Amino acid sequence: MKKENNYPDIVKEYLTEIAEYYRFLHQDTLRKICNLSDIVLELPEGFIYDKFYSVTEGELENSGGGAGRFMLYDAMDSEDQKKVDGTWLRGHSDSGGFTFITSQPILSLQIRDYYTGKWNFVGHTPNGLIVNIGDAMEFITGGFFKSSIHRVVNPPDDQAGFRRLVLIYFCKPKGDAILDPTALNSSKLQRLGYVKPKEWEIIDFKAWNNEKSRLFGKSKVNDTQSEEPKLVLLYGRLHERWHQAESNFSLEEAEKRFEILKIDV
């Protein structure tokens, strides 16, 4: 974090502590999550962190990274509530590897169940972190891990008057990390049939992150009559994959059922 950046005064006052917090998440907490992923995928401990997220001092382009965000939601008046139909941030998945969100007691964050389509509130664990899987880890595992579809909605009536503050860390793989399961060489994924689909182009994380990020909030993607955005095809992949847990769901099936935008990249 550069002190010459135009941070608010309160951030400047605690810049060292904020940087240390996010550094700890990346170098300690993320490493533990990656080690658990290694166990699940039957890989040597440390493989995923070292290959995709490790930091090399002085080599920003060749290092894993991330972005920190402080989000403060004020109580919304009834007229504004009606305009957004009670949804403060519509359903989406994150482009990165993992997302860490501080747990807090106001119920507002919801996760979509891939199998039922039902939205469920995320409960509160004091001093805990919510960990969402992002697109990058879904692609790296060939779809075995599934990127979390999540949204932010009105809290229950008895919590509606409170402000909601969360600290978020979006963990991102190295920019040149290839987003498919080939590099993992996981015997478990191979046994279960999770391999690179033929329609997937070979791309790195930087390409995916850049293209998905520019779609966020675009009216041509998000102006729909349902809670789901229109689907966009990027590098042989759908930018959001709300139905991927359905049996026999594929890109070919999606093209039959949904409007899919194809954008030159």
TrEMBL record:
Residues in Fe2OG dioxygenase domain copies: 1-173
The molecular function terms of the Gene Ontology recorded here are: metal ion binding; oxidoreductase activity
Q: What keywords tag this UniProt record?
A: Iron, Metal-binding, Oxidoreductase
Iron as a keyword of this entry, yes or no, is yes
**Cited InterPro entries:** IPNS-like_FE2OG_OXY, IPNS-like_sf, Iron_ascorbate_oxido_reductase, Oxoglu/Fe-dep_dioxygenase_dom
Q: Which Pfam families match?
A: 2OG-FeII_Oxy
Output the superkingdom of the source species: Eukaryota
Record's family?
Belongs to the iron/ascorbate-dependent oxidoreductase family.
Q: What is this protein called?
A: Fe2OG dioxygenase domain-containing protein
